[in-house]
Every structure is written in C-alpha cells, then in structure tokens.
Amino acid sequence: MKKSIIPVIIILLLFTNCKKEEKTSTDSQEKIMINPEMQIQYAIQDYILTYAKKENVGKSWKEMKDMDSSEYFWLSIGNKVKVLQETNANGFDSYLFELPDGTQYWVEKEYLTHKFMIINANDTATFSQPDQDYKGKLKLQTGDFGIVKEEKNGFFLVEFKAYQPFKEGADPKYVGEVWINSGYTNDVNAAKEAYYLYLAKYYDLQKNDLTKAVENLNKGLEINNGSPTDITHVLQEYLADLAPL
C-alpha cells in the first residue's frame, strides 16, 4: 500500500512545481518594461481620474467620490508625469506613474501620450499610408490638435481631434487618424491651447452652443498665462468671430 502512495505523492509534487513555474512566468509577463524615451508622458485632456491603488483602476467618479482624497488624483491637459510601469489592471491597459512630488498613481494608458502633434501651418498635407504616394485630399489647418500613435518612415500616425472639410466646399467633419510628415509642432503649451480650440469647435459645430465655445476659447487663451504659442492667434481670431466686441 505504501509503495502505491509514493508515486502519487511524486506526481502531485511535480504538478505543484509546474503550476508555480507557470504562475511565475505569467507574473513576469504582466509588467512591461518602459522604453526610457517613452517614460515622460502627458495628459491628453482635462478631468482624468487616476488611482492610488491598482485595484481601483477603471472605477467611475461615482464609485470613488466618497473615498479619502489620497485615493485619487485628477490630471489636466498637458500635465507631465513619469511612467514607471505598464500592466493590465482590471482589464484595462494601464500605467503606474509618478508625479513631480514623488507620489504614484495608476491611470488607463489611453489617457496619456508621449508626444502631441499640433498643426502650425495651414493646408498641411495628410496621407492614408506612410508614403508620399498616398497623399489625401484632406488638409489640416493651424491649431488642429493631434496625439501621436505611431512613427514610420519619417511619417507620424496621428489621431486628430479636430474638424475639417474632407473636400472643398464640404461641411467640417471629425478628422480622426491620418499620417503626416510636416507642418507641426510638439510644443506642450501649444497643445494646451489646441485642446481648448478643439472643444470650442465641438461646441460650435456639433452642439451649436456658442456660450460653451467662447468659454473654451477663453480657457485656451488663459492657460499659458499670456505666453503666446504658434497657434495663439487662431484662438484670438476665432473668439473675435464668435463674440465680436
């Protein structure tokens, strides 16, 4: 009887060790090393809820509002953070990041970018592929707000949160992702202004709410404390059109 028990014990021990090795391998894959060039990232909008604890990632403000204020932190457009770790948290691709004072929080990856791309030249060409032969009809204009997604062959795939006509004489439509290779700046202060310019156009063109449009233009003009960028004049001109003196 004892002889028949021994092989069973050996099999169980081997099975347990295999499980431990499998779990160790899985755990090692959960954390993705961050490219040093990608460590510095920026918030892509206002009102980004971030979390002190990984297990809270993905929770709504309604679920978080009664917790101690140390359990969350709000990021605003252009806030700079240092990314320490990338992993999956509660089904969300997420970053652990560090604020300038050293405190750390978790955020869904989609709310940060390593680079903005703001159009600073009118009639900037767009492409459907990262190649000169794939030039499209859509032209971007100064002040269009973009978030870099990919770089290839000297071209950038950018998600533009902007409204432009896709052909001459057409109504402006949301741009979305296109490739570009010129006519841009990566200046974060310009990105802050461009974000509010985008919101102003959203409220003007999509919601027909001039009050909100003017409100966002004023925010954009105030956010850099009077320091002009390549696109400041666009906000000023748009505001003059919507709310003439």
Q: Termini distance?
A: 99 Å
Instruction: Catalogue the unreliable spans.
Output: 8-16, 18-29
| Large-scale geometry | globular
| Category from helices, strands and their pairing | alpha+beta
Strand order of the largest sheet: 6-5-4-1-7
Q: Rg from C-alpha positions?
A: 24 Å
Mean pLDDT: 90
Specify the biggest β-sheet: 5 strands, antiparallel
Proportion of residues in extended strands: 25-35%
List the quaternary state of the chains: single chain
Write down the domain tally: 2
Number of helices: 5
Give me the strand/helix succession: HEEHEEEEEEEEEEEEHHH
Helix percentage:
25-40%
Count of DSSP strands: 14
Q: Could you describe the 3D structure shown?
A:
The protein has 245 residues and is of the alpha+beta class. The chain folds into two domains: 78 residues, SH3 type barrels, CATH 2.30.30; 127 residues, no CATH class. 31% of the residues lie in helices and 32% in strands. It is built from five helices and 14 strands. Strands 6-5-4-1-7 form a five-stranded antiparallel beta sheet, with no helix packed on it. A five-stranded antiparallel beta sheet has the order 13-12-11-8-14. Helix 3 packs antiparallel against helix 4 and helix 4 packs antiparallel against helix 5. The longest helix is centred in the first third of the chain and has 29 residues. The radius of gyration is 24 Å and the shape is globular. The termini are far apart. About 9% of the residues have low confidence.
